Amino acid sequence: MSASALTRCIAFSAVQTITTHVLDRTNSSTPAGDTQILLESAQQQAASWSFPDLSTALSGHRRALMDSGSSHQLIQAIHKTLTSFRFESLHGLLNYVEISAKLQRIPHEFDVTCQMLQGVVGVMEHADARNQVKTTLHRILTTSHLPHEDLGPEVNQLDIILDILFSLLHRAGDWLDDDPFVGETMALYAARREPGPGRQRGLSQCHPDTLETLLTKYLTFGVRTDMALNAIWRLSVVGPPFIVFNQQTLSTISTLPEFKVSPAVIAVIKSNIMHKNRHLPVEDLNQLMRSLRICDTSATPGIGRWNSANLLIFLDFLEQMKAMLSSWGVPTLEFLAQRCSEDEPIPIVYQRRFAWWYLGLMKHYGYDIKSLEGIFWAVETWLKRVNAAQNFNDPEARGTLRHAISMFSSNEGGHLPYNAKMWTDLLSSASADNENPVEAGSSRVFGTQST
Questions:
Q1: pLDDT, position 1
Q2: Is the Cα dihedral 266, 267, 272, 274 positive or negative?
Q3: Domains of the chain, residue spans
Q4: What domain of life (predicted)?
């Protein structure tokens, strides 16, 4: 198939050379005899390279030229025929990639073939051509036999196709941010679970700002809101490229019905915005936290505002996360945990919030420890990262955690959670004389399962 496409590409290049020459040499003042000679040469080339439609059209123009002589209207008609021939290369490229997208394996020399076909297309000056590209993109993503969400990290034909076609649109300067075809195409593709060189290739022509705009607008007018939210989450957490969706995206999400992934999307967007602006002065960080509704209800002496924000985002997500066992919960926890400082103290109110949540986790799911394995690992990684053995120094919080761990241990035959040493260090780091457990009565302790 690649060999056939390359042969057609060579044929098109040969005929395009002569058609371009005719376009450059003909106008209303060109003698009819000279125009006849040029048209005859182009017609012969079109016939010999098997472009019968072009050959027939040029033959008609030659007869009109012999019957009526040269005129402005006839020259315009000739130019229109020759210019329209450029669409042949685009049709060839779109046909080739659409057929290839349906194959289980990448065609031989697929990348090289696509590059050559793209090279003869040139800049698409007509809106019809650009719309054909967008329609083909959408059709490929919605009908491809390749399960794009489950694609591995390696480069496949779908990645190459998107790279090539996005490049054509990018060169034409026509992304049309509110175009539903492009928005849904981006949402479909970006939802791919596996990051790596494949997705990096597929999105190489898409500036992060373009992706952000497309997906945010698609949230408003698209029909697959859940898919778009999933794409935003994946691009925010695992990239590439690294994208910081802005407060407009958060505002848009706030107007939507809540999906299982919504708390995770909101959390990672807030975290990325804070990370991007981490070097702002304290007063500006305070203002940013207020605008993001990262509510700090405690005085935090000795703790940086950026780390305070990261701790709050992490704790808010724990308390609001309703789909605990969803595919987004654990990787979101791991992502947010990486943003928390290892060196700064943890305010008492934060320690207690975490302890209440953890006790609530034991009360709601202590009977099903195995299903929480990923969450335990993520939470214990966070506790180790923030040096909880030293920084969890509030007796009340430690007492609540001691009560939660006793519930775990009773369900697990006396064993401690997975990182036993970390828990031993944490719970024995200070005297237990004043460590009184606090019952988790707050409604914030643990979210209920989504319906």
A1: 57
A2: positive
A3: 1-84, 112-236, 275-427
A4: Eukaryota
